[in-house]
Amino acid sequence: HTDAVLKEARGILNKLTMTNFEKLSADIAGLDIRGPDDLKGLVGIIFDKSLEESHFCKMYAQLCNAIKDKLKEFQEVAPDVDPPPGAQPTKKNVTFKRCLLNKCQEEFERADRYDELTDAENQGLSDEEKNARTRR
Q: What's phi and psi for 69, nearest 5 deg?
């Protein structure tokens, strides 16, 4: 299901312009997002599109603002918290805004790791290999 939703989202985003912004942002908000993975995937696609098409960055920011309160909120078990014996696992809310914030934070930290690599460590590596070294 997630793959189908993300494929549909990519198709919509590929057509997005300021001329058809209202309709297509409503289409994005109306996607059948069924869980946190769908939501995180959508954020990833929008984030990547804004990086790939920097001349449309403002439009993608407006898209995020337009859909942030229209998408469902989900809950998932907090991965870093081990509940005491007999207690219920801690759940956290997963919203579009939270996913976007987390994605920005991850990319910011990844860029810091990239900056930390020395020229000697990068010598002879392709861009793809350099990126792979910074993703942890």
A: -100, 0
